[in-house]
Design goal:
88% of the residues lie in helices and 0% in strands. By secondary structure, it is mainly α.
């Protein structure tokens, strides 16, 4: 029955309804067939047995009355009474003919056909003998009439009545057989109806239970797994054993749980990466395994950490450059400071030299005339001293400007 598991749920339900419908159809068909059979049998019993039996009973009655009227005609001397009896005999004869014709038109079995043949042989002879008997009576030939009655008419009349009784017995026997047949059919139909009434609900209930188990069982399994997943167990999966709607639902549930599990795994990895990054490890990266929102978030996180790492590297490099520049600036400042001190010492020496030179100039001025040649040399020395003073002043100005910087 593995193939049945792959049948769609709607088809299963329609199949169950179809089975119930078929069972009801069979039950109805059996009931209608039995009803039609009973109707036909009862119609045949009425038309072929009951009506002919009544007709034969009328024939027997009229035939008995006809035999009795023969005695009345023999005893009656009154003309009107004889005419009345003759009219009654004609009616009886017509009734007998009509009854036997109607009986002959019914469905006859072979025994009835044989009995009817006997009637057709005996009854016309009886009618003819009776007519002859009445003629002898009317002619006053009573002895001959009596002899004819005893030797021919009465025996033929008894044979005619016996033939009708034989047909009646055949009708009774056939009626009893048909009644037994109808009773047996009714019993069989009742047994079939009871069997169908018992088996149909049992089969319908069995089919319903089977359909219920094939539908409700997987559905309850799905509900159990969904409840387990609701508690946080993302590794739960549904056992898919069919390809119907429930099986397809189980497949989609498994895919959904797999996606949930992957998403939560990515969230956990991202959370761990962020925690690690918060401790200062800027080399941490998220393992991106999808292209959904979480995957895009992981990619953006990796780009952000890469930018952070690059920026921190540039900041560190710039800091190193600044540190080197600061060290160089400090060395330059120290060198400038040393140069300024040396220049200050040189200026002091120059100032002392100028004072000495000034004294010399004063002394030489007094003796200028006396030492023209010395004056000329002093002049040259003075000019050179002026240049030195100008250079010293310029150096002082530069030192002052560098100190301000």
């Amino acid at each position: 029955m593995d193939w049945f598991k792959d049948v769609k749920v709607g088809h299963k339900l329609m199949g169950g309804f179809a089975i119930v419908t078929v069972l009801l159809g069979i039950l109805g068909f059996v009931g209608m067939r039995n009803t039609r059979t009973f109707s036909n049998d009862f119609a045949s019993l009425y038309a072929d047995r009951l009506v002919p039996a009544v007709q034969l009973a009328d024939v027997v009655e009229n035939l008995s009355s006809l035999r009795t009227s023969a005695y009345q005609l023999m005893l009656t001397k009154d003309v009107k009474e004889r005419e009345r009896c003759q009219d009654a005999d004609r009616q009886r004869l017509a009734a007998i003919d009509d009854g036997m014709k109607a009986f002959s038109a019914t469905t006859l079995i072979q025994a009835e056909k044989d009995g009817l043949k006997t009637w057709n042989d005996v009854y016309p002879a009886y009618v003819a003998s009776r007519a002859h008997l009445l003629e002898l009576q009317a002619a006053g030939r009573l002895a001959e009439a009596e002899a004819l009655r005893g030797q021919e008419t009465a025996p033929l009349g008894e044979k005619a009545i016996a033939a009708v009784h034989n047909l009646s017995q055949i009708q009774s026997r056939c009626g009893a057989e048909m009644n037994a047949k109808i009773a047996a059919q009714a019993k069989s139909a009742m047994a079939w109806m009871i069997a169908l009434l018992v088996l149909a609900p049992l089969f319908a209930i069995s089919a319903g239970l089977f359909l219920s188990r094939s539908i409700v069982g997987p559905l309850m399994h799905f509900v159990e797994r969904a409840t387990q997943a609701a508690t946080g167990d993302l590794q739960v999966r549904v056992d898919v054993k069919s390809q119907d709607e429930l099986g397809q639902m189980g497949v989609q549930f498994n895919k959904m749980m797999q996606n949930f599990e992957q998403s939560m795994s990515q969230v956990g990895k991202a959370s761990h990466a962020i925690t690690t990054a918060s401790t200062g490890d800027l080399r941490v990266r998220v393992d991106v395994q999808s292209k959904d929102e979480l995957g895009q978030m992981g990619e953006q996180f990796n780009k952000m950490m890469q930018n952070f790492e690059q920026n921190i590297y540039q900041v560190a490099k710039a800091s190193q450059v600044i540190t080197t520049a600061s060290q160089e600036l400090s060395s330059t400042s120290q060198a400038i400071s040393s140069g300024a001190q040396e220049q200050a010492s040189a200026l002091e020496e120059t100032a002392a030299s100028l004072e000495q030179m000034t004294a010399s100039v004063k002394q030489n001025a007094d003796n200028a005339q006396q030492a023209a040649q010395l004056a000329q040399g002093a002049r040259e020395v003075a000019e050179k001293g002026g240049k030195v003073v100008s250079a010293a002043v310029n150096a002082m100005t530069e030192i002052n400007a560098s100190s301000r910087k």
